[in-house]
């Protein structure tokens, strides 16, 4: 896969293509992959590009995104130099506007990741603090290294985890969000699984291989079916309960008569792989 960001040694992230699987890699390990406005915009650009490619022919479109990071840490939260530049002494309106612009960049990043029209898998090792934890909560599936640690540290700095809060609350629930947002208490990978921030633990040396294996397993599924499933879940989340019957009935009726579903069901009865499924080494 050829991408401008892939060939830019100064970029904070890059895209790698492995057939239907695309990996989005945080690539600033010397800075613990900390977030600043530039890196967040790079990530938004990558995600927007991937969303656009999903409309390409089946053989060319990405089916699954694997979000991972180089180095010891997934992401240490906000970049310290970027935070230092936000110090301004007394309040002034221009600083307020600049901070609002920066917050909107993070909001767009969270939304772009959350609304990507195909599954997202995240791998987390080391630290996932502040906004990084929000990114994980916006992904569909999260695998955590045994040594990963997490923290909503904002209030310890006199800040508020505002932009990421809808995603964090959705993942861990309001009761647990109150505890960890108000206490800024670090928690380990086992607790992250209990809180629904992560789904599975992995030994550090197996995190990447298990993450790729899971991602390729997802690539066996119908890409349009996965897109429709994500759309359905979002609709159920945001629509009142009395509308769920219409949403669910309309979705399955529309999908069932589509080409992908017809191919999938026919392939099942023919005892053959459907035409969207990539060929793996263990298949003949």
From TrEMBL:
UniProt GO BP: isoprenoid catabolic process
One Pfam family linked to the record: ECH_1
InterPro entries for the chain: ClpP/crotonase-like_dom_sf (IPR029045), Enoyl-CoA_hydra/iso (IPR001753), Enoyl-CoA_hydra_C (IPR014748), Enoyl-CoA_Hydratase/Isomerase (IPR051683)
GO molecular function terms noted in the UniProt entry: catalytic activity
Superkingdom of the source species: Bacteria
Family named by the database record: Belongs to the enoyl-CoA hydratase/isomerase family.
Protein's UniProt name: Crotonase
């Amino acid at each position: 896969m050829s991408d401008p960001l892939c060939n830019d040694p100064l970029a904070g992230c890059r895209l790698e293509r492995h057939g239907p699987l695309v990996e989005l890699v945080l690539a600033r390990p010397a800075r613990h992959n900390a977030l600043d406005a530039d890196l967040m915009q790079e990530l938004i650009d990558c995600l927007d590009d991937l969303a656009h490619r999903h409309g390409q022919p089946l053989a060319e479109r990405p089916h699954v995104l694997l979000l991972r990071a180089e180095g010891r840490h997934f992401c240490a939260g906000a970049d310290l130099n970027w935070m230092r530049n936000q110090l301004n002494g007394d309040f002034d309106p221009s600083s307020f506007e600049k901070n609002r612009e920066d917050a909107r960049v993070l909001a767009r990043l969270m939304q772009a990741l959350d609304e990507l029209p195909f599954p997202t898998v995240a791998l987390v090792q080391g630290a996932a603090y502040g906004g990084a934890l929000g990114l994980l909560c916006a992904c569909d599936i999260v695998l955590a290294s045994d040594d990963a640690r997490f923290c909503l540290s904002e209030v310890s700095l006199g800040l508020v985890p505002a932009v990421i809060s809808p995603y964090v609350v959705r993942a861990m629930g309001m009761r647990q969000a109150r505890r960890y947002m108000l206490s800024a208490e670090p928690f380990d990978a086992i607790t992250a699984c209990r809180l629904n921030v992560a789904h599975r633990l992995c030994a550090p040396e197996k995190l990447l291989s298990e993450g790729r294996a899971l991602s390729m397993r997802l690539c066996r599924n119908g890409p349009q079916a996965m897109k429709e499933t994500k759309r359905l879940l979002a609709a159920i989340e945001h629509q009142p309960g009395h509308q769920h019957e219409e949403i669910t009935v309309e979705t399955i009726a529309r999908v069932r008569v589509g080409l992908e579903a017809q191919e999938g069901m026919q392939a099942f009865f023919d005892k053959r792989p459907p035409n969207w499924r990539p060929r793996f080494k263990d298949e003949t």
